[in-house]
Design brief:
The N and C termini lie far apart (about 50 Å). About 20% of the residues are buried. The radius of gyration is 15 Å and the shape is globular. It contains two helices and six strands; from the N terminus they run αββαββββ. It is mainly beta and about 120 residues long. The strands form two sheets. The protein has a four-stranded mixed β-sheet, with helices on one face.
Length: about 120
């Protein structure tokens, strides 16, 4: 499926990118609210995510685009994408197929609780 050549300028204008032109993208399972992973997107990765129905990231280590699931089969099908109030983070709600983490775990946040003191709630 061909994509448009660029991110919509009205969306691009709302983004606050880091010094590398990237925005953090938090990926969440759409129906359970489970936080699955954090990835990074530049304008092109966000454009692809918004127009292709699958999540695309910019790999900081490999310096290339990668679409989640192309090699592992553990795809992320887009359900919605939202920008936070500051414009510096995205929330990508997905239907996760298989593991989200490169370790094979369902979520990248299974590495263990850090033992924070639990605060008193209202």
């Amino acid at each position: 499926m061909p994509t448009d050549p660029a991110l919509d300028p009205s969306v691009a204008a709302r983004l606050k990118r880091d010094e590398h032109g990237l925005v953090a993208a938090i990926v969440q399972q759409h129906d359970s609210g489970e936080v699955l992973m954090l990835g990074w997107m530049d304008d092109e990765a966000l454009h692809r995510t918004l127009t292709e129905g699958r999540v695309t990231f910019w790999s900081r280590s490999r310096q290339e685009y990668w679409r989640k699931g192309d090699t592992s089969g553990h795809a992320q099908h887009v359900r919605s994408v939202a920008l936070d109030c500051d414009g510096d983070a995205l929330l990508v709600r997905v239907e996760q197929v298989g593991a989200a983490c490169h370790t094979g775990d369902r979520t990248c946040f299974d590495a263990g609780d850090l033992g924070a003191v639990v605060g008193a709630g209202a």
